Structure formats: structure tokens, C-alpha cells
């Protein structure tokens, strides 16, 4: 595996990858020899807690050394784009920085983010694609402007572990939030669930439709309570509008996930990728309940990442 | 050992712990197998040099992997407290962040700090207690709002190594400083010395009395020169007022530790936890003298931490 | 080897050091036992990408553990100089911080930088010299105010690998830049080339003469095109004026390295230490050409550092 950026990179062996992740959990250090003498470089362009720690833990299980670069603080400001005259703030072009990092690391992970100002720019995934083009080594997305594939793989593993029926009803629900957030997590969640053949319903206020490229095959329901009926999993997440790009169209607290709404479901498990705004996205009573699986879900970030790294190491 | 936050956590075996630390110094890597395949997470909420490095060194001696999280820079701003509606700056609740870190690490260390604005809040040790409550793994305090136990253990080891009589006279002296500092170091120093049966004198200007919970059993002397007489160890430290909470009542340079005052002692050793304001807290001539043991004292931070980590690893 | 700060530290065995670096490249992990149970501390006072990563990679090859300290962010602001009264912003004196770090690390690396405000101060190399004086362990310069020896050693290795004649003509050319930069890279490049017996020409606008201490033995040519004739290597770099200390005397884009000027050379290779301002220092067409060896040059930072660390470890 030369890159891990979307479900397309693993579509051919998705069920095996999930099984492998669950196996790794039982014997975390079974493949410690694979990463011996190998270095994983992790480049963060914005804050990270789960990704930062779970990736280091996964690499450690595989015997790899990790070097973390906080690209927003430790290094030079970077330029991107072709043919530009670099007489401004940026001291280094991303193509040079990435080519150099590829000389020092055996695998590179990168977390970039959506600016939310320009839809075309964000969806062009310039930073991630510059890494793929110039690194010369395999590249893992640690979340990009429009996708968060390690999160989605962890989500799928979690659903596989907790599901009570062969084809559970999974509901992705929009929830309010004080700030404009990217569509990366919901985009990715939708495309991974659909690729895995999950029965997916998405519910959100009008105007919050995601890019169809990711959601084709899902049911879109504008009535949240209607959507929750018979759900086996409720996955809450805020995102800003795709159509009115990057805008907040609603902060309506009627969309907060509450105990009363959870009662409409088939005793559904509650999921969220974290970090979560308590009592805005979801009530304490829900996230602190027995049905909340947000912590095991976060813990599964290790095994998702480890399954991917293992494949990459095997193909080096 | 499930937590290390104050002398109370080790009161039952304090002399053994000190002996063990001194033993580890002679064979640093003797227990390298204990930490194999284990991860220590270090969470810093404010700057740190000695703690950051000595803890990593101690973990390395024990064969552990360390992951450092600069919680003030690398991750999301955190909220705390029950039932709050998170519609402000904080993107994540500390209870969720800690629970997640506990999934990725086998032991967690945390450095928090006193705000010095609200005595009750600082002395409630909210952050440290949130770690203990939500981590699900052993927690080490790397300094909290009101205590710095790894420093005090290192101080005790140092006094054990340098003392010339079975029960030396140790003097903790307040010293001036341009900024308001927490009471964590003097609180902790006092409670550890007293728990170890040391003859402790504390000297400071009036109004700088520490919380009696920590100092009960120590002599309080307001005349610094009087206190220095026959001292075997002078431990200098500034702190802000506990009574007039967080305030600077004095910047009086007559409290600076000088050669002339050191001459009143029983050729006492000079100690300070560092970082130290030279020529404000202590004159160059004292800290650079043969009697100054601030560097061996700092070096002992490794063995203090290693003795604690070793116990924790043994009880995992 | 107790310090690595300039070519003088390795002058007695420079050809062997280069051979050794090239050997290490063929068997990176051959000396992994040397660094076992050893800790390398890296202290950065300003941003770094290549140095940060290549040094960690080199240490990893040698089996060493690395601890990184971002001294501008992770720790306390530091004071320097003798006898100062520390009642300002700085919480710790560099002499204490360095002595402490020397207790926790077996080798220390430090990156400091030129303030460019005061020539005497910069050329006194206060920070680097404080490390050498107070660390008590071997010290490697990761670039200082006036030299960048690991870069120059990597440059020499690169020229050794790519040269087509026994004594190639190497041209160091000044190039324009929007900001005032230190003389560290050109100073160091000149002294290393000359120590290695390279035929060195330096070209720059008048007023950009470097300190003669570094350039004695090189040809100084003010006509860039004249200098490029028959060159085997073009090494581009901006620096601020040494005479009019720290000033930008010219931003003249006629000094940019272009394809048309490269045509004057003996099919010269293009070198730059990176980061580079594209289309200001050098045209895309040159740096992206087959003759550009900036990426292998950056990759050689690993072997330069590893050869130095190996010598230091052998002498511990």
C-alpha cells in the first residue's frame, strides 16, 4: 500500500483490513519486527490529540520509531503552488520540505485542514497531494481537508464490534456547534459506511447536504426524530455547509442529541469522533450513559492505524 | 502504586523508596525489562525543563517509550467542571481528553499549575483530580497547583546523600522574586521533610505563612538570620502569599540569600529547585560556590522519578 | 571528540570523516550498539526542519534515544551573561539550564542564531560557548550565530560524491532574499571548502564581503557571470552584509540563479542548503532541473551528523 487517503485505497480488502485490526488488538506486539529500523514522520499542520497519540502508539506496537513535526510551530512557514515568487512570509516551498522529509522517513503521515474559505481549493487537497507527489515514500492521511480515513476505519471497527444484527441501521446526525467545522469527518464516515455495505441514514437541517460524491446510496432525512427511529448507532457530528461553503446556517439547539431522542432508537449506541462540545452537540446524560461508546471508539484509532501501517511496512 | 501526587502516597515506604532511588543511580538500566512495551504519556499544561527531561530519562532507563503532549500548544483548549455548556473557546472537555489518553498510555504524568486567582479552586486540584478520576491508568503528578512531589522526593534523596549528621537542620527560606509564584514547591518540601522526620525550620516575612496542613511540625521563624544559625541545608524558594492569596507582599532584597548570611550556618549546603533568578533569590557567589548542590539536586530528579515509575510498573 | 562547532574540530581527520560518512550510508545500522542506553538532547532556539529530522535519524541509526527541547516554546525564557540581576522576563540563566541538561543527556546539540543587531555579540557565539562551558558533556552545533558545520560537512560529502574531476571549481554565489539572513552558512561553507583544498570562488555584490577569517584563500569575484564560467558546482545562498552588519544592501534580482547563467558553467550541479526562496534565490527551472542536487544534499545531512555522533560516542 503506497497511500492511505480514502476508502478507495483499501476498497479491495476492506473486510480483511477490519478483521486484521481486530486481530492486532489481541496481540498488539505480534508484528514488532516489521517496523524495526524504520522511521515514521508525522507532520501536523494543526492541533491533534487522538491522532497524535494513537498513531505513535500504533507505530510503537510495530517497532517503528516516530518523529513528530509540528509544521505550524517547529519549522518554516511553507508556500505551495507552481511558479510562485517566494518573496513573502513563506521561507520554504512545500515540495522541497516534503521531498526532504521523504529522505529522512520511511513513511510520512500528514494532517492538513480545510480553510473553509474556498471550496475548490479545499476539495483539491493541495497539501495532501503535494505529500503524495513529492515524498517518494508511502503517505498516510492523518485527516485532510475533506476526509479523515483513519477515523472512519476506527468507526467501522467499532460498529463491527458492537453491532447486534448483521446489517445495523447507522444514523449520522448533524448537531449544532459554535464554530464552522470542515466536512472531513462526515464525508469520510459516509463513504466508508457505504463502501462497507452499511444501512446509512444521514439527517441534518436543509442546506447542510454533503457532497453527493460521498453520500450516494445513503438515505437523507431532514426530520431528526424520524431518522432516529430504529437506529442501532447514532453518530453525531457538526459540519459547516457544503453548498453555502463553510458557512454556519444554523446553531439550532433542537438538533442536540438528547436522552429523549435516544429513546426513539433501537437502544442505539452513541458515537462521536471527539473532541465533542458537551451540552451543545450532545447532552452529558447521553455521552455519559452506558450506551455511549465514544471511548472504545477512540481507542480503536490505534488498531485502525496499526492495520494500515502494517500493510505499508509489508509493502516497503 | 496507582497514583503519585503527595507524600501520603508513599508514606508507608518512604525510607525504602529513597534507598531504592539511590540504588537505581548505581545501576540505571537494571530494570529495563520492566517498561518494555509500555508507554508513558506526559501532559504539560505549562513550560518545563527539568521535569520534561528527567522524566523522559527515567522512563528510558526503565525501557519505557515516552509520548509528550504539550497540552497548551499541540491539542485543543480544554474545558472542565460538571454540566457546562461548551459553546466557548474550549473544544474538548478534560474528562474526555484524559479518558482517551488513558486508552493510549500505560501511565500518565501531568503538570498543571496554580492560577493564583482563587485559593479554593487551586487547592481543589481540579486538573490533577480529573486525571486521577478519568485516566483509568496510574497517574503521576509532574507538579500540580499545590504540590511538586517528584521535586520533594529528589530533595530528600539529595539531603540523604549530603547530610553529615543523622538529623540535619534544614531551613526553607522565602526569597524575593519579581513575579507571583505558586506555593507548590514549599508546600511539598515541607510535607516531605516532616514526613521524613527532618528538623525543619521555615523562615519568611510575615504574611507569607503557608497552609498549616503542610507545615505542622516545622518551626516558623520570621528572622531570617536567626533561622540560618547552625543550618546544615539552606533551601531557598519564593512563593506568593497564601493568606492574601496569590499576592506579592514583598520584594525586599534583604531576603536574598547572600554569602554573608551563609556564613551564619553550619557550612550549610545551598539548595534550590531551579529555575532560579540569580542575584534576586540568591547571589551568584552562593549558587556558584562549593556549597551549592543545585546541579546534583536537579540530577536527582531522574532517580526520584525512576523509583516512582518502577513501583508503578511493578503494580501494573 | 568533545565538541563539533567548526572545521577546526575535525581538521586533523577531515578526509577520513568524509569517507566514514559515505561508508555509513551503505550500512546505516552497522554501529547501532554504540548509542545503546545513550541520550542525545537537541535544543532548538529557532525553527528547524532538516536539522531536527536528520539529527534524530542519525541518532536512531546509532541506537541513541533523542529528546528534543524547543527552548523558545517548551521551557523558560533564558538569561545570559555574568553577574546580571534577573528581575526581568528571563526565569532561568542559561548556565544553569545547560548544566542541568548535561546531567540528563550524554551528548547535547544546540541550535542558536544570530541576532544580526550586534556583530561582536553574534561573533562571540555566547550561546554555543555557554553550552560548551557548562554542559559537562560533548556538544554539537546544530548551527550557531556564525557557522553551520553539519551543513558544510554534508556539502563536502555531496561534492565528493558528484565531482567529475579531482579538484572541481566550486562557486558560492550570493543571491537576493526579502529578509536579512545570517552569514553562518556561507562562513562555514567557505572554511570547510578551503580546509578540504577545494578550488573556491565566491561571488557577491560589493559590500557583501564575508569575514576574511573564513574566506582567506578563496577567489572573490564581483561579476557573477564571470564567476560562473567553468564552474562544476554552483552553491547559492543569501546573506546579509558583514561590513554593514546585518543590513540588506541589495535585493537585486539580477543575482537570481537562472538557467541562462547555469549555461555559462561546466554543466555545473546546483546546490542550496534549503529552505530556499524559489524564483527569488533561484528559478524553478534550475532547482527542478537534472543538475539540481539539493535533495541528495539534504539527505547527506544524516550521514554528516552520523559520522560526527559516531566519533563522539566512541570517545565517551
In short:
The structure is a homotrimer of 316-residue chains. Chain A has 316 residues and is α/β, with parallel strands linked by helices. The first copy, chain A, has helices spanning 14-26, 50-61, 94-104, 119-124, 126-134, 149-162, 184-195, 212-215, 224-228, 259-262, 284-287, 294-314, and strands spanning 3-4, 39-44, 65-70, 78-79, 92-93, 107-111, 139-141, 169-174, 199-203, 219-221, 233-237, 269-271.
Question: Could you explain the architecture of this structure?
Answer:
The structure is a homotrimer of 316-residue chains. The first copy, chain A, has 316 residues and is of the alpha/beta class. Chain A has two domains: 3-147 and 301-314, Aspartate/ornithine carbamoyltransferase (Rossmann fold, 3-Layer(aba) Sandwich); 151-298, Aspartate/ornithine carbamoyltransferase (Rossmann fold, 3-Layer(aba) Sandwich). The first copy, chain A, contains twelve helices and twelve strands. Chain A has a five-stranded parallel β-sheet with strand order 1-7-6-2-3, sandwiched between helices. In chain A, strand 11, helix 10 (259-262) and strand 12 (269-271) form a beta-alpha-beta unit. In chain A, helix 2 packs across helix 12 (294-314). The longest helix of chain A is centred in the C-terminal third of the chain and has 21 residues, at 294-314. Chain A is globular. The N and C termini of chain A lie close together (8 Å). The model of chain A has no long low-confidence stretch (mean pLDDT 97). The interface between B and C is medium-sized, with 30 and 29 residues.
